[in-house]
Amino acid sequence: MTAATLSLQGLAKSFGALRVTDDVSLEFRAGRLHGLIGPNGAGKTTLIHLMSGVLKPDAGRIWLDGQDITALTLPERARAGVARTFQIASILPEFTALENVALAVQARRGSSFRFFGRVDREADIRASAYAALDRVGLAARAPTLAGALSHGEKRVLEIAAALALAPKILLLDEPFAGLGDEDTMAGIALLRSLKGEHTIVLVEHDVAAVFALADDLTALVGGRVLASGEAAAIRDDTQVRAAYFGDEEFA
Question: I need a surface site. Which of 94, 103, 144, 223 has the fewest CB within 10 A?
Answer without folding.
Answer: 94
